[in-house]
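Structure tokens please, single chain.
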Amino acid sequence: MGEGRKDRLLKLFVYQMNQDDPKKCTSKRLNHFGLVKTIYHISKLPKKVIVLNPYSEEVLFPGDRDIVLWDGLMVIDCSWKRAEEVFLTKFRGINRRLPILLAANPINYGHPSNLSSLEALAAALYIIGLKDEAEKLTKVVKWGPVFIKLNENPLNDYSVAKNREDISEIEKTYF
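Here you go.
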């Protein structure tokens, strides 16, 4: 990691599609607390940001840290019921999927990979070694810290993976 990058402000983005119940929307809570920048128009999406895309072939791993620190991290906030359709769109940026983790949100608790926007951002930050920032995000909802506790072992293992192949092996170990 370049020395000048560690002092940069973390750039977290949400492309908000308004497909979910606003009262249960974790990205709206993150926005309310000033922890993310919400984007409502596709033309405003950053060009080089890492986009968390559950359908991407490439998995996020600790080596993606510099990209996140320099250009940012983004989730697409959409309904899981429409996710496949939504992700047919080619979002600009560097698409990465998260390794398999269990959801802690009340709607998908215990389901592999059905993460809320908050869980996805927190997982990505944790995996690239920004654990304090990940934990800070989880504190905006009651069940948030449960996500880290529920996935503590795989998250710790993912965060020390040397490459994408290691991530695949770790996924097989847990899931």
